[in-house]
Specification:
Layout (H helix, E strand, L loop, with lengths): L3 E4 L5 H12 L3 E6 L3 H13 L3 E6 L5 H14 L5 E4 L15 H26 L8 E6 L3 H4 L6 H21 L4 E8 L6 H4 L5 H5 L11 H12 L10 E4 L4
Parallel strand pairs: 1-2, 1-4, 2-3, 4-5, 5-6, 6-7
Helix pairs in contact: 1-2, 1-9, 3-4, 4-6
Length: about 250
């Protein structure tokens, strides 16, 4: 029986790289997307062209009804879920904390906290031996910002990723004896389109020369770490954090 992975926000950036790599390694892949159907369809087409199995499913993962529909679609079309990558997230324009308002905070919390919580819950209900499942693995995509705070740019984003880190640790302890491993990757400056959402598409190039390694990372480098954490090679890792930030 093939492994089945759901990658939220799987059509772009780190999510797309993870989806493609999972497909290449034999996973049946669900590429979740919220709005960019064309990007998700392109990733699915790449996986299928290489002989893999993949579907694209639209869902806003911050809405519980849509999450249940998403997971039921995976059940019906790909089979029993064995892996979840909580990758979907967002940030907004660079700003100081004293310039934020409640609407921005609500949007950030919904995408970066509520969505991963809802998806993790749906995954546990399917994978946990307590619920009759056969086990599995969850990888949360956090950020080095959770450690660094992102002053003058994204303190709200950093705080939301800090919450995701806390969820990783707590959930890992809850389900450690139920056959589920829960871990987190914390990317640093990675060349993806998310920086354009903050108003500075070239942010990585601006900061990269000051990093210990002198360069930004690539989505494929993060995907490799995610797939390792999902794999049997990481069978004794749970509640752990893998920093991918070039030494920062």
């Amino acid at each position: 029986m093939s492994e089945v992975v759901l990658v939220t926000g799987g059509g772009r950036g780190i999510g797309a790289a993870t989806s493609r790599l999972a497909g290449a390694r034999g996973y049946h892949v669900c590429v979740n997307y919220r709005a960019d159907e064309a990007a998700a369809a392109a990733v699915v087409a790449e996986i299928r062209a290489d002989g893999g199995t993949a579907i694209a499913v639209q869902a806003d993962v911050s809405r519980s009804a849509e999450v249940e529909r998403l997971f039921r679609t995976v059940d019906d079309r790909l089979g029993p879920l064995t892996a979840l990558v909580n990758n979907a997230g967002t940030l907004e324009k660079q700003s100081r904390l004293d310039e934020l308002d409640e609407d921005r905070l609500a949007r950030t919390w919904a995408a970066n906290i509520t969505g991963p919580f809802l998806c993790a819950g749906a995954a546990v209900r399917r994978m946990s031996t307590r619920h009759g499942g056969s086990g599995g693995a969850i990888v949360n995509v956090s950020s080095a910002a959770a450690r660094l705070g992102s002053p003058n740019e994204y303190v709200d984003y950093a705080a939301s990723k800090g919450a995701l880190d806390s969820m990783t640790r707590g959930l890992a302890l809850e389900v450690a004896r139920e056959g589920i491993r829960v871990n987190t990757v914390r990317p640093g400056l990675i060349h993806t389109g998310i920086h354009a959402l903050g108003g500075e598409p070239g942010r990585v190039d601006r900061i990269a020369p000051d990093l210990p390694m002198g360069r930004g990372g690539q989505p494929e480098e993060v995907a490799e770490a995610i797939l390792w954490l999902l794999s049997p090679a990481a069978s004794y890792a749970t509640g752990t954090f893998l920093d991918l930030a070039g030494g920062r």
